[in-house]
Structures are given as C-alpha cells and as structure tokens.
C-alpha cells in the first residue's frame, strides 16, 4: 500500500491508473533502484578496469543491495527487450565464413552432449550426497539450462521448486562471476574498448523488428524466443548485407540491464537460505566447471579448437549470459550461442522422457 505521504503528494495531480496501483508503483521503484545501482556498479568496475565491467559491476552491486534489503528487480518483459537487442548484436556478427564453419559443428555438438551428461551426473551427485537434496530436486537442479522448465517439471516430480529455482539462479550467478575472471587470469583477452562492436553503429532500424520477431518466436515455440528470434532475424539481415551493430551505448546498456537483473533476482529471499544454499551452489558450480573443463580438453584434443572457445562452449551458463561473455572475450559469439541453443533445445526435448526415473 502507498504511504499517506505519497498519497497526499499524488492526489492533487490525479495520477493515471498506473500510478494509482501500489503494485505498479513498487515495480517502478524497483526498476529505478536496479538501474541507478547498476550504473554505479558499472562505473566503479570500469574505473577499476575490471573485465566485463558493465555486466559484472551491475550484477554484483544489485546482488549486494538486494541482500541488504533495497527493493530491486526488473520485470521479465523489460529484460526481454534487452535480450532481444543482445540477439541482434550477436546476429550481426554472422558472415558467409560462419556458415562455412558450421559444417564442422556436428562433431563439437556431439562432444557438447557428452559434456552436458558429465555435468548433470556430477552436479546431481554433489547435490544428493553432499547437500542432502531429495532425488528430484538434485537431478532437476543439476540440469544446466532450461531453468523455467526444470522448475516446473521438477515440482511435478515431487521436488522442491523453490530450492531448484534458487540453485539454478545461484549457479548462473557464480558462473557469470567466475568464468570471465578465470579467462582474464590465464588468457590474454582483447581490450573490450578496441572491439568494433563497442565503437560503431550500423543499421539501427533493425531494432524495430525485435517485437515482431519475438511474437513470431513465441508462436513457433522457440526456446527463449525474446533472444533467439531477434538473433535469427539479425543473422538473416547480416547475410543479406545489412549487419547490425549496436554501438557502445546500446551494448553497455544491454550488459548493465541483463547483469543487474541477475543480481536483483535475490531480492526478498531469506539471507540464511541464500547463504546455506549458496555454499552448495558454489560447490556444484565448481564441480560443473571441472566437468566442463574435461570435456573442453577433449574438444581441443579431437577438434583442435582453442581452449577458451571450447571451455566457454561447455560452460553451463545461460545462452544470453554466455554470449555476452563471448563478446567481451573476443570469442566467436555465433558459435557459442549456437551451441548453447542446441544444449537448451536438447534438454527441453529429452528431460521429459526421463521424468519417470527422476521422480521422488
């Protein structure tokens, strides 16, 4: 409910229905807080010259203030718009050379499937034996991707939906925080500011196609349609001779909103629950990264891919988040996005068949 002070201030101006609603007012306040906290975090990380400043800074800043109790959060529809712009940026990197390289992808997709199996079995074992999860919660928390589907199916299998959701959210947060740091420690990555993506703008009119593409993606039941549909549209435009380039401000804003939304999702959750599950989610993330590293070494040995590309391909993160990391690291984002899209599609198609074996 709005406070008397707010009511007194707003009443003389005959506010619109949006502002009459305490719910909508709360949403606006949380969005405003997420943005200014994210901007501050991004500026601090940029000043400290920390890698991926405009994603990690807003993420960590919003995570801290959400645990402190400051109302933060971004509505899924707003986040979806920026996921769409990220898809546009990624698709703009497609070229005829990319299509020629795609002929070699079946082998890397097969190795990715092996890596996913290793991650699922390793993480499920950790959650079951170390964290003490029930059978369904352990298995559906271990699946690297398709978070919403895993929460729903896991609940139907008798698992704890809240525990599954929090395990996935914490794993994604740890992956996004740890993986870029590991890359910058052990590999020389190109300077983000020297990336043409962050300097030029081209064919911005294509942004008008985000919403029609999103709608079409929903009708076609694409996974994460707000991201994949604009991605496919941008790929088609790039191959037709109209590559999209968002420029420095759009890219930074996209990173800031998506990073901030990851950190803000913990607002309102009990700190004790986050800390208890957080230590196990960190342990499970380390297990997943060990399994991913093993599969990445196989990919390097058998296919000759650079290890950074192989590891980022195997890393169990969200498709949008891993694509952002690829952009910042100078790794082919189309290759990374295509493999993570395959992973999510495969999981969504295959997991329901194993439902009877994963129930409590």
Automatic annotation (TrEMBL):
<feature type="transmembrane region" description="Helical">
    <location>
        <begin position="105"/>
        <end position="127"/>
    </location>
</feature>
<keyword id="KW-0472">Membrane</keyword>
<feature type="transmembrane region" description="Helical">
    <location>
        <begin position="250"/>
        <end position="268"/>
    </location>
</feature>
<feature type="transmembrane region" description="Helical">
    <location>
        <begin position="52"/>
        <end position="70"/>
    </location>
</feature>
<feature type="transmembrane region" description="Helical">
    <location>
        <begin position="169"/>
        <end position="190"/>
    </location>
</feature>
<keyword id="KW-0812">Transmembrane</keyword>
<feature type="transmembrane region" description="Helical">
    <location>
        <begin position="341"/>
        <end position="358"/>
    </location>
</feature>
<dbReference type="InterPro" id="IPR017516">
    <property type="entry name" value="AbrB_dup"/>
</dbReference>
<dbReference type="GO" id="GO:0010468">
    <property type="term" value="P:regulation of gene expression"/>
</dbReference>
<protein>
    <recommendedName>
        <fullName>Ammonia monooxygenase</fullName>
    </recommendedName>
</protein>
<keyword id="KW-1133">Transmembrane helix</keyword>
<feature type="transmembrane region" description="Helical">
    <location>
        <begin position="23"/>
        <end position="45"/>
    </location>
</feature>
<dbReference type="GO" id="GO:0016020">
    <property type="term" value="C:membrane"/>
</dbReference>
<dbReference type="InterPro" id="IPR007820">
    <property type="entry name" value="AbrB_fam"/>
</dbReference>
<feature type="transmembrane region" description="Helical">
    <location>
        <begin position="139"/>
        <end position="157"/>
    </location>
</feature>
<dbReference type="Pfam" id="PF05145">
    <property type="entry name" value="AbrB"/>
</dbReference>
<feature type="transmembrane region" description="Helical">
    <location>
        <begin position="280"/>
        <end position="303"/>
    </location>
</feature>
